[in-house]
Design goal:
With 155 residues, the chain is an alpha+beta fold. The protein has 5 helices and 7 strands. The protein has a 7-stranded mixed sheet with strand order 1-2-3-4-5-7-6, with helices on both faces. The longest helix is centred in the middle third of the chain and has 16 residues, at 95-110. The two termini are 17 Å apart.
Length: 155
Amino acid sequence: MTDLVLRKIEQSDREDLFSWRNDKTTRGMSFNKNYISIEKHNIWFERVIADSNRVFYIGEIKPHRKIGVIRFDKTKEGCYEISINLALQYRGQGLGKVFIREACIKLINEKTVKEIAASVKTENTSSVKSFNNAGFTKIEEKNGVTKMHFSGETA
């Protein structure tokens, strides 16, 4: 597999996040299905890039091809909720599980982490599988949402 590099999000990633977020497939599997305007995106981007309770990683494979973004939102002290969005052309290649696992390990190495949780639409079977293969364990499935937490054990 191609080497994966994780780095913190930068201003130069703004347009990629906008494009990835508004991808039709992404919107279909997101909890918020609405198209986001560039104006709203820019306001959101400026707010979250400065938010110390959020950690963003861009995944790149050589040579400097961005594959997607992972966001960790701090929910309480030591607890984070993970969110991932892979660029359309990199889906279905097994990169999701590697990206998720490596990002979780990076977060653990950079922050004090008690728990990393994920909430995934149950119908998004490829995402549920990626999280499971990356070391997440299912906690519950309710109202069409699969809740998982990072156990560190990979399938």
